[in-house]
Design a protein that fits this description.
Blueprint: E1 2-7, H1 24-39, E2 46-49, H2 53-66, E3 71-74, H3 84-91, E4 98-102, H4 106-114, E5 130-134, E6 143-148
Parallel strand pairs: 1-4, 2-3, 2-4
Antiparallel strand pairs: 1-5, 5-6
Length: about 150
């Protein structure tokens, strides 16, 4: 099973739009990383996002580029301050390739939890980027395959 962790693209500030959609630069960047992820073989069967507009827009771009036949939906346990253990536990036993569009600091914490490096620096996760992981033991251990900055 492969897992693609995606930090949402650059969003406008709340003073511009309280819903915080992607900025023009954010949309361009997300389209680029979506094309690059597809070129690296990313083909998730499920695409999850937090429900916030910026993650939905990011998820939709990757969904279109990587597998428009995948199930695309908002899900719980992906808010910025949600404990990463919640998502780790949901991933255990999952057999379908999955893409998650989420937020900082949740994604760096989730990555550190999955690769079992609890002291890992959140700065190690690419800002507005993608980290691809793989598990061969039903989510008990993960290894990084590639990343896009």
């Amino acid at each position: 099973m492969r897992l693609y962790l995606v930090h949402h693209g650059d969003a406008v500030g709340p003073e511009v739009d309280a819903r915080r959609p992607l900025s023009d630069a954010g949309r361009v960047h997300v389209e680029r990383i979506a094309a690059e992820a597809a070129g690296r073989g990313a083909k998730p069967e499920i695409v999850w996002h937090s429900g916030k507009l910026r993650t939905r827009q990011t998820a939709e771009a990757l969904w279109r580029a990587c597998n428009a036949l995948a199930k695309l939906e908002a899900t719980k346990d992906l808010q910025p301050d949600d404990p990463p253990a919640w998502m780790r536990d949901r991933l255990r036993g999952e057999t379908r390739d999955l893409l998650i569009a989420g937020h900082f600091p949740h994604l760096p914490r989730l990555l550190a939890t999955l690769v079992q490096k609890p002291d890992w620096s959140p700065g190690g996760f690419p800002l507005h980027g993608v980290v691809a992981l793989e598990t061969s033991d039903e989510g008990e251990s993960w290894r990084e395959l590639w990343r896009i900055d």
